[in-house]
Amino acid sequence: MSGNAPAAGQMMKNRSIDEPVFLAIIGMLLSFSFLSLLGRVWIKYKTLAKLTWDDGFVILAFMSSLGTAITMLSTYKQMYQLEYVRIGAIYPPPPTFMKDTTRYFDGTVAQATLFPLSLWAVKFAFLSFFWTLISRVRSLRWQWFAVFGFTVASFIAAYGATDWKCIGGGADYIFANCGTESAGKRMKFQMWFVCAIDVLSDMLILSIPFALLWQVKLPVRKRFALGGIFSLVLVTMAIAFVRASMITTYKGQPDNSRTTLWTFVEQTIAIIIVCLGSVRALFTQEQAKRVSGYQFSQNHSKASSKKKIKCIVETSITLGTMDNDPDYAKHWRRVSDNEAAEGSLERSNSATKERVPRTGV
What we know:
Elements: H1 19-48, H2 53-87, H3 97-134, H4 138-160, H5 165-168, H6 171-177, H7 181-215, H8 220-230, H9 233-247, H10 256-276, H11 287-292, H12 301-319, H13 326-355
InterPro entries: Rhodopsin_dom_fungi (IPR049326), SAT4-like (IPR052337)
Organism: Amniculicola lignicola CBS 123094
Family: Belongs to the SAT4 family.
């Protein structure tokens, strides 16, 4: 392999992130994401005393990012050795160079597998939570199913767009075929393609709660608060753009340390953002007062529908999921039945009054 390395004295510019900085950022982000997950689980335990489907997806996302961190920490020395040989800082390459590089490439296969899994697990966590908000709102069900279908398709496309031969094809194949300018262009295209479907799926997911907020009547303060919580998804969209631009800044092959680190940054930031959404439990304290005061309008069917949507949304947002809480589900049905009975009684009384003949004086 020494013949493929730069000759002595032919140093190239080192584009790598410094090793201490690389390790510090990994440790910091992993710690923050873990603490965010613990906070989410604690809040759900205090409010519901159990976990729901969206929590399961968040845990899957964290486990995937943890797997990414483990592979990064176990192969970062081989990654930097490859970069130092590439720029001529280490010459000739050590006897174990090919073995070490093969180990690093094996780690990149694991990272390329876990990265989409982690990101899309967060997306499915949001979709799972939003389903609890709109499952009883017929006008939004089709929108949810359409977004869900696109999210599944984009998840598959993220794997399909990956150049697996230049990731797991073996050190000999990668050195022979994946260091060219055309290979670098393919990798950059793959980066931007995944970025595009990542951001587009986030935008579609974000459209669901805003469509819901548009249809319900809530106090302005609460409307802005919930809109702010949902808008945290915009942060992950921004990180996706930053990741793609930082990795593809240079000509030729992207730098390995930047590719690896920004992949982990996007994974962990997405987990932190979805865990911050658990602050919806702060509204729980007002649940008892509000749920007892729900009333459906008896004047017009359209107004009645909006009141019903408001009841569903408020209950679901304060608890995270209404369908999984039998007590509140029973209470909601009891309120609905009582309102329906009162409406029937009022209509019956009105009909009786119309049948009674009036007597003039």
